[in-house]
Amino acid sequence: MEEPGRSIRQKERTERMSITHFENINGKKVLTVEGKPSFLLAGEIHNSNSSCMEAMRGSWDRADELGITTLLIPVTWEMIEPQEDQFDFELVKELVLEARRRNGHLGILWFGAWKNSQCMYAPEWVKKDLGRFKRAQMIKGRDRINLESFHGMSYSTLSYLCEETKRADAKAFGRFMEWLKAFDENEQTVLYIQVENETGVMGAPREQSDEADALFNGPAPQGLVEYLRANTAEMEPELKKDIEENAAKEGPLTWTEAFGGSAEEIFSVYYTAGYCEYVAAQGKKVYDLPMAVNAWLRQGPAGTYPTGGPIWQMMEVWQYAAPSIEVFCPDIYVRNFLEVCDNYVKRGNPLFIPETACNGRVGARLVYSIGHYHAACFAPFGFEDMGTVEANPAMALFGADASDPLLNEQQDIAEYRRYSEILASMRERLVAAYGTKDLQAMTAERPEEAQMDFGEIRFTAMTQLPMIAKKDGVCLVLKESSECYYILINRAMLAYASGDETKPNAELISLDEGRFENGEWVTTLHRNGDEAQMLMFMKPTLLRCRIFTY
């Protein structure tokens, strides 16, 4: 039986949209959804929830409370191909239909050979056939080891060098993309695909099998050598040093001769990225949705995190070896959130956060990511637990800084929803300013960068004042014209000044609180007198501020 109203919606969507893709707008790589530049107000579910529709309905209920409209959900290899060449898409179909019933969207996380650097979601027939589907030997001759740096945790994963695994993974992914195109191309419920999850190996910087040794001691690919030598401008300093110190050598060169101390990690990155490229390309030739990869961040020497994954320090290698991947994404569970974001916007990469901790500042970080980094996506992980999350020492086993004190601060649910609603209502206006200085933001996490300079007017948002108890303020400012600005602010005091030396005085014309309805401004309060002088805001507030200078 046809889903009610589906044929009408298909006709409407087909008439007005193209497939989701990235476009270059104002020099910025911007996600385009249903023919319009956009960003995703997303959340990644607890991964097991996509295995059961009852759990998924609970995830959607929580998403509705938070104003989250795109869910990032796993579709796993074992889910769709429980026996070799026998494919089953019934559960995936129900997952997509539920998103449609909720008027939401999905990002699909393909858990194939890798999930958190392990092979947990590979089908039984892959896991059991170790002769055909080779494991990564992190100690020569051993298919499973105990990770000393992770409290002796037992560890095994599939080899990034195994052609049989790569072909089987890509085949399953290609069949999934064929099904998705047939079922969803007109509706466009699914907006993008993440290929694998937190790829790489642990226990050593590279695999230690005889095959790996032979490749590592053989010649490094000349194209890779030349590419890295030609692309050092934004390269991580240690990698840049290793590349430049060996740049005078002529090939053919071994990996160590070409890349010095970075050779083993580059080896893992090259083959891991090449594996993901093969899988992604199989999908894209069928259905050309945007493809992403995500990274468990570097937090120690190679081998103590999934080495080979798309960490920012190795972005150049990934861009060379995996051209079908459009965006490289950080999973951020560390204290230096902003530093990670700074590093992931290099080389034209848009900030796309598929996972971050649901701590007490996740709402402010959502606003700042849109306002400062002009992000394509922001998604708290396990958003179902927002407001109740506490630090758990076991999180350290999966790349999180469990000692982060922010994990014991709770994000207010109503406040997060308010941020989401305001950003959603302004989406078209905000994205039009992506890549320009007309959209700026500040955060209490960088109080020294409190000023937002728009030329004619400079705004300052002060978040560290004694009367502001909770130091998690944020302020986003969108310039509409030289006299008109829209401001989203919370737990901060706002000040403004002229930025024009020839017109040193700045004066309010009007200050209104309000909201956007169907793209049009609606005033809910006109501020004047004392309430236009004392610009202190202790809850998420949207303002329209008109100022002139003289």
Quick description:
The chain has 550 residues and is of the alpha/beta class. Helix content is 31%, strand content 24%. The protein folds into two domains: 6-432, Alpha-Beta Barrel (TIM Barrel), CATH 3.20.20.80; 439-549, Chondroitinase Ac, Chain A, domain 3 (Sandwich), CATH 2.60.220.
Most strands sheet: 9 strands, parallel
Radius of gyration computed on alpha carbons: 25 Å
Instruction: State the CATH architecture of the largest domain.
Output: Alpha-Beta Barrel
Q: Please state how the strands of the largest beta sheet are arranged side by side.
A: 12-14-4-5-6-9-10-11-13
Q: Would you kindly provide a written description of the structure presented here, covering whatever features stand out?
A:
With 550 residues, this protein is α/β, with parallel strands linked by helices. It folds into two domains: 6-432, Alpha-Beta Barrel (TIM Barrel), CATH 3.20.20; 439-549, putative beta-Galactosidase from caulobacter crescentus (Chondroitinase Ac, Chain A, domain 3, Sandwich), CATH 2.60.220.20. 31% of the residues lie in helices and 24% in strands. The protein contains 17 helices and 24 strands. A hairpin with a 3-residue loop joins strand 16 (451-453) and strand 17 (457-462). The protein is globular. Residues 1-16 have low confidence and may be disordered.
What would the keywords be for this entry?
550 residues; alpha/beta; Chondroitinase Ac, Chain A, domain 3; 6-stranded antiparallel beta sheet; 17 helices; 24 strands; 31% helix; disordered N terminus
